[in-house]
Amino acid sequence: MTDTATRPGTDETAVLRRTVEEQRRTIDALIVAAERRTTGEPDSSALATWQRNMTLQRRLVERTERIRNAEQLLRAVVDSIDAGLCILDGDGRIVDTNQVWGTMLNRASGDRTATSFFKLAGGATDGLGALTREAATMVRLMLDNQSSQVTAAHQVETAEGPRWWRMRADPVRGHGDAQAVLTLTDETNAVRIQEELRQATREASRLALVARHMEDGVVIADTEGRIEWVNDAFTKLSGYTRAEATGRLRADLLGTDTLPLVDLAALAVGGSMVLPEFESRTKDGRPCWMRVVLYRVTDDEGVVSLMAVERDITKRYNAEQAQQAAKNRAEALADELSVEKAVLTGVISSIPHLIYWKDAEGRYVGHNAAFLATRGLPAGSDLTGRTENEIGAADDLARLLSQLEARVLDTGEPIVDHHATVTGPDRTVRTVLMSALPQPVGDGRVGVIGIGADVTRISALERQLNQTNRLEAIGQLAAGIAHEINTPIQFISDNTRFVEQSFTQLLNAVTQVREPIVAVDPDLDLDFLVTEVPTAMTESLEGLARVAQIVRAMKDFSHPGHGRGDVDLNRAVESTSQVARNEWKYHAELTLDLGADVGLVPCYEGELKQVILNLIVNSAHAVEAAASQRGGGLGHITVRTARAPDEIRIVVADDGIGMDDATQQRIYDPFFTTKEVGKGTGQGLSMAYATIVQKHGGTIHVRSSPGAGAEFTITIPTHVPDTTPE
């Protein structure tokens, strides 16, 4: 306790002190009287009085010693509490304090020497000032209505750093000087009681009153754990009255068998032990969690006692459990979100379409690998936080994306499947479908999500399909025309053959009667007619046969087929070469070297004929381009077929201008052509590659050099794999 406690603790103590002084004066007077009468006869009456006074003095000393011991014990209890206590009189003057109070004031630079709490509150600053001023207001209210008051927690700067302190004011009833007790608790750290019990002071009764107002339960027991005394907080906590608890073992009142193990032998006198938190039950069976600090104390006579300070931490424990459960749920949710994010990132990265998203300022927030590849940026690049101008992509998409994003941000409406043709970083022309969608990013701002698909191949396939449909339509038309031509050609051929036969007989008869006929028409050149008419008839029949052959070839070439089936390959080559005759007959001689053992081949008839036609037409154009190199004359085109053990080989060779290595690397690219504008589309060989390699599962190779012609070799497997698309 501090030096401010200079007044008597209680009225009883003051009376006792005055009685002691009177007895001393009486005893001194008796001693003097006895000395004066030493030489004379003893006064029996005085001696008897002196003996009674000596007995009274001895009893008074014994009672004073017991009071002092009790006061020391209660003082030790109060000083062992980890909260600061301050006892005030009715005017707010500080009657007494415990050591924690002074220590806490020293840490917060408070005026420890102040004799009035109101003066202390008025002189304090910062957090301590706010706390003490609020407590001073509560003290005034409490002194008026005698009800306990608790301040809010205030942040107080101490020597160890900022701490959160709370102060409670409780009234003190039935005491002369003490009218209020202030409890200053440190809410920052868990309550730990480490103060050693000190000697009891003369104010045992007042400190016992303070102990009854503590928020923690206080239990004093003997070394066996049998309860000797409890405070009011314990009765509220456990549900047992003081009378019910006194004399019973504390363990019997906990209502549970699962108690923490305590090694009392390891607890030295004057030491303390914090027990593990455990669950107990009150008298009515209500579960509660306890935090207990155990002390071993001794008095001046060597009597050892156990003191326990108990606190109900049920609310804190439940809050911690709820917090831990929430943390576990959050961690589980975070793990799930992490897995989902990884899956989503993997899905987005594996999507072949380019995907990106930006914030309201046009800075990239995310993208996938296809976006980097399409823009010609290194794999693994991170564009986050960068604008379009800062990434330095060398393609046409930058301008297109800026236009689409500006429209979306201006109108707030999405743009879906915007068709555009752009040049990539490798200078290849690509067809893309771009979509730009508004994406709210918070605070009323809008970002953009972009999704694009490279449909170059699809566009090429669409053009091929259109071309195929057009060729199919033309083929159907040609087949119809060929069918219509075939009928009149047949009867014209029959009639011409009839005329030939009949005219031959007629000429034979006319030659027998030459002179009468010449006499009838002298200008008639009968010999010319006899010589030329049969020749004309023969040539007419040959022409009609040629027309019939062309009509049959047109019918064969225009036959679309029905999926994959066995096709007479040699006949398909013959009909295709006849259809392409108009392309090569003016520039080259075409030789068919067809293997007799080729037979039927499993293939898509219409597509294969189209491939052969494209190769023959390309060879005819190459031969035509090489006419100046040959010095005029016709070139040569050769079409060969042969059967191998597991495949059929088709070779189309010419002696045209040939190709260099760079051209050979790109001949199968869509839209690539070396022909002049209007003569080539760059689709023939790309379609041939798709038909032979992707649809038939075969191969197509070229061997060429500049000025030495070209030779295309096609192989088609004779066994259809199960994976071949139908």
TrEMBL record:
- Cited InterPro entries: HATPase_C_sf, HATPase_dom, His_kinase_dom, HisK_dim/P_sf, PAS, PAS-assoc_C, PAS-like_dom_sf, PAS_4
Domain of life according to the entry: Bacteria
List, for all copies, the residue spans of the domain called PAC: 274-325
Q: Entry's CDD domains?
A: PAS
Its primary localisation, in coarse terms, equals membrane
What keywords appear on the UniProt entry?
A: ATP-binding, Kinase, Nucleotide-binding, Transferase, Two-component regulatory system
Q: Where is the Histidine kinase domain?
A: 480-720
Give this protein's Gene Ontology molecular function annotations: ATP binding; phosphorelay sensor kinase activity
Entry's PROSITE patterns?
A: HIS_KIN, PAC, PAS
Q: Does the keyword Metal-binding apply?
A: no
Instruction: Give the UniProt entry's GO cellular component terms.
Output: plasma membrane
Domain named PAS is located at 203-248
Query: Is Oxidoreductase among the key words of this record?
Result: no
Pfam families membership: HATPase_c, PAS_4, PAS_9
Which reaction(s) are listed as its catalytic activity?
ATP + protein L-histidine = ADP + protein N-phospho-L-histidine
Q: What EC number(s) are associated with this protein in UniProt?
A: 2.7.13.3
Q: Where in the cell is it found?
A: Cell membrane
Alphabetized NCBIfam families for the sequence: sensory_box (TIGR00229)
Name the chain's protein. histidine kinase
Organism expressing this protein natively: Paractinoplanes tereljensis
